[in-house]
Design a protein that fits this description.
The structure is a single chain. This protein has two domains: about 120 residues, Rossmann fold; about 70 residues, Jelly Rolls (Sandwich), CATH 2.60.120.320. It is built from three helices and 14 strands. The strands form two sheets. The chain has a ten-stranded mixed beta sheet, sandwiched between helices. A four-stranded antiparallel beta sheet has the order 8-13-10-11, with no helix packed on it. A hairpin with a 3-residue loop joins strand 6 and strand 7. The longest helix is centred in the middle third of the chain and has 16 residues. The two termini are about 25 Å apart. The relative contact order is 0.15. The mean pLDDT is about 95.
């Protein structure tokens, strides 16, 4: 499946997921400079360019109003959906301003509700939102990982390969029972049969 890569304004130290043939790259505002610094040329640039200061001299630039109903990253995701993409990898959008990071959690939730998949990668932590599906990780020693329900109570949650495992767990959206689990050198599977989970993990 081809993926839509989106670059936000925060610096990116390295790429753990790399665009390949058929993938589409969107730069959101200052994410244009971030993408260029990583040797990537965006296929599309969108934003109000308040963080960059001015629109770049590039092809396929969509200029947005500063006063609008969604963020630059949110608009970029919408344009990715319009082009037929349902799998998103987002860099430069975790950390920095807390309200913008939370907005990106909401965007990831929206992607999941539309049947898509997303991976938001930061320099220290990354997150994904899954709905009625599973998320897996290769074996690794150490590192934090947390699981929260979004929107409503998550039913039939299974957690395998972490310090704290679970089978047929119910997680209310008001519960923080899934906070601060840890990797223990085993392959990991997190499965939700009915509901939506936010999974946040510390990068290796």
């Amino acid at each position: 499946m081809n993926r839509c890569f989106i670059f936000g304004a925060l610096p990116v130290s390295s790429l753990t997921e790399v665009p390949g043939d058929g993938d589409y790259i969107i730069a959101a505002d200052k994410g244009y400079d971030v993408a260029l610094s990583l040797g990537l040329t965006p296929d599309l640039v969108v934003g109000d360019f308040d963080s960059r200061g001015s629109a770049p001299d590039a092809e396929n630039v969509v200029r947005l109003q500063v006063r609008k109903d969604d963020t630059d990253v949110g608009h970029a995701v919408g344009m990715g959906f319009e082009r037929g993409y349902t799998s998103f990898v987002v860099y430069g959008a975790v950390g920095g301003l807390l309200d913008h990071t939370f907005a990106n959690v909401v965007i990831a939730h929206e992607i999941a509700e539309k049947g898509g998949r997303s991976l938001f990668i930061g320099n220290d932590y990354s997150f994904s939102v899954i709905r009625n599906e599973e998320l897996s990780f290769p074996a690794r020693d150490g590192g934090r990982i947390s699981v929260f329900a979004l929107g409503k109570t998550a039913q039939s949650v299974r957690i395998e390969g972490l310090s704290y495992g679970a089978e047929n767990l119910t997680i209310p959206c008001t519960s923080h029972i899934g906070v601060s689990n840890s990797f223990i050198g085993k392959p990991v599977r997190i499965v939700v049969s009915d509901g939506t989970l936010l999974v946040i993990w510390q990068n290796p």
